Amino acid sequence: MIEIDNLVKIYKLSKKQMAKEKLKEGRKVAVNGVSFKAEKGEIFGLLGPNGAGKTTTLRCISTLLKPTSGTVKVDSYDTVTQSREVRGKIGFLTNEINLDPQFTPKYMFDFFGKMHGVPEDVIEERRKELFDYFGITSFEDKKVSELSTGMKQKASIAVSLVHDPEIVIFDEPTSGLDIITARQVTDYLKKLRDNGKSVIISTHIMSEAEKLCDRLAVIINGQKVAEGTVEEIKASTGGSDLEEAFFVLYKENVTEEVQ
Ligand SMILES: Nc1ncnc2c1ncn2[C@@H]1O[C@H](COP(=O)(O)OP(=O)(O)OP(=O)(O)O)[C@@H](O)[C@H]1O
Ligand SMILES: [Mg+2]
């Protein structure tokens, strides 16, 4: 289970960043008091526009960023004071490809498996299963630098699952993938959910959120503006589908800020 309580993340900006983003203030509030719980056996989605704070939230859960205030717990372990325990439990996929260009998918998979302390025979077994499922076997011995964006994404997904993590955190899991591979990924996430894992994803694709997520938090400008099942969010906003509901929420919350 993932429990987020009043999470705030403020980035300190360099002079260069301030100039680039035309900001007068040296800080950017990326996440502003977000709380939610994502349970085992569900796919929880963070839905929001560009810059809403989704990646920042997922990075705080993954121990890569320290919250400015508030707490994040993964299976009761605190991501700041018990980060090592948390890291053993999570599989994190980010769309900033983190595979080393000079190595092969096979090498990377085995390397991360060993790093997580997975026995060699189990690594081999999981590699066969995941590489076969995601269609990686045919390019498992090619250098990462020679792979296409989609191939790299598939390899990253497999590598992030090497240790069979209890909690799967995927930042925009289908970005850059064709519809066939995207479907394989979403089907795999459902399989993980059905096996009792906690899955949390970020997306700005309404149809993906609608089809895949058991519950959602809608994030706008670093704040949670709605939470619930797709049906609950539709009912609370009067939207006929998720896209309509999202626009109702967006209008309410963005206009408020301008006033
Ligand atoms: N390292 C950083 N330093 C300064 N500001 C940052 C940094 N990372 C993100 N931000 C800012 O924080 C805000 C939230 O960014 P974040 O990447 O969490 O959004 P997001 O919801 O994932 O957006 P997207 O859909 O575009 O991926 C944005 O305004 C962004 O410019
Ligand atoms: Mg993002």
Describe the structure.
A hairpin with a 2-residue loop joins strand 4 (69-74) and strand 5 (77-78). A six-stranded mixed beta sheet has the order 6-7-8-3-9-10, sandwiched between helices. It is globular, with a radius of gyration of 19 Å. The chain has a single domain, classed as Rossmann fold (3-Layer(aba) Sandwich). Helix 4 (105-115) packs across helix 5. It has ten helices and ten strands. By secondary structure, it is an alpha/beta fold. The structure holds adenosine-5'-triphosphate and magnesium ion. Adenosine-5'-triphosphate binds at residues 11, 13, 17, 28, 30, 48, 50-56, 204. The site of adenosine-5'-triphosphate has 14 residues, from strand 2 and helix 2.
Q: Can you give me a brief rundown of this structure?
A:
The protein is an alpha/beta fold.
Summed up, the helix count is 10
Distance between the termini: 38 Å
CATH topology assignment: Rossmann fold
Helix content: 40-55%
Uncertain runs are none
CATH-defined architecture: 3-Layer(aba) Sandwich
- Average residue pLDDT: 92
Give a short account of the largest sheet. 6 strands, mixed
Report the CATH superfamily: P-loop containing nucleotide triphosphate hydrolases
The H-and-E topology, N to C, reads as EHEEHEEHEHHHEHEHEEHH
Largest sheet strand order = 6-7-8-3-9-10
**Number of separate domains:** 1
Number of strands: 10
- What overall form do the CA principal axes indicate? globular
Our Rg estimate from Cα atoms comes to 19 Å
